[in-house]
Amino acid sequence: MPVFDAINADLTTFTHLAANYRQAWEDRRATRREYLRIANELSMYTDRELGELGFGRADIHAIAAGTYRR
Questions:
Q1: How many C-beta atoms surround the C-beta of residue 63 within 10 A?
Q2: Cα torsion angle, 12, 14, 17, 18, sign
Q3: Using one digit for the tens of pLDDT, what is the confidence trace for 7-49?
Q4: Is residue 61 within 8 Å of 40, Cβ to Cβ?
Q5: 63 contacts 36 by C-beta, under 8 angstroms
Q6: Hey, which of 30, 31, 39, 54 would disulfide with 64, CB 3.0 to 4.6 Å?
Q7: What secondary structure letter does DSSP report for 58?
Q8: Percentage helix, strand, coil, to 5, in the chain?
Q9: Could you say which DSSP state residue 45 is in?
């Protein structure tokens, strides 16, 4: 039954695509959650504490995103 084989192949392809999409979505969600955790924690520091660590409040986004360069 070639028609059923084609349908089965399409469903298999769709299933793999859906699984890959879901994994990518979960990865982005985990990355965003980690970003927010870091940003929230750094936001609780005073300007003086941030200065003692060697950066300012404007650097929080870059630090949380992992793109901060000194």
A1: 16
A2: negative
A3: 666 778 888 889 999 999 999 999 999 999 999 999 999 999 9
A4: no
A5: no
A6: 39
A7: G
A8: 85, 0, 15
A9: S
38 in Cβ contact with 45 (< 8 Å) = no
Q: Which residue has the tokens 């084989």?
A: 5
Distance between CA atoms of 11 and 16, rounded to whole angstroms? 9
Does residue 54 contact residue 48 with C-beta atoms inside 8 Å?
no
Q: How far is CA 48 from CA 3, 39, 44, 60, in A?
A: 70, 17, 11, 14
pLDDT of res. 12: 83
Identify which of 33, 40, 47, 45 has the alpha carbon closest to the alpha carbon of residue 61.
Answer: 40
Task: Report whether 44 contacts 19 (CB < 8 A).
Answer: no
Domain boundaries, the chain: 2-65
